[in-house]
Amino acid sequence: TAQGLRDRRMRLSVQIARKFFDLQDMLGFDKASKTIEWLFTKSKKAIKEITLNHQQMKNSYRSREKSESFVSERELEFVTENVNDERGKAQKVANDPLARE
């Protein structure tokens, strides 16, 4: 964090705590942080897959968002021309009701 490291504790359910401390005993570690480090090392492949999938989902969402809201300059010019044409026609009709196309 911006204020430096802070102590983060987590509560474990009884079942998870038993599994965790049994694993710690089997590994022969005396500190929980070493057990967590071991778990991260053994989970590296799965974590990498999740990270890649998460990034792909974010990129897919962003590209879908862009494509849905993207309007080309030419499309914008076409719409603007049509609006201006319609306004011109409306002005002609307002000024001269007999001048209809």
TrEMBL record:
InterPro entries: TF_TCP_subgr, Transcription_factor_TCP. Its main location: nucleus. This is CYCLOIDEA-like. Residues 1-50 form the TCP domain. The keyword Transferase does not apply. GO terms for molecular function: DNA-binding transcription factor activity; sequence-specific DNA binding. GO terms for cellular component: nucleus. Keywords: DNA-binding, Nucleus, Transcription, Transcription regulation. The keyword Transmembrane helix does not apply. The gene is CYC3A. It comes from Diervilla sessilifolia (Southern bush-honeysuckle). It is found in: Nucleus. One of its GO terms (biological process) is regulation of secondary shoot formation.
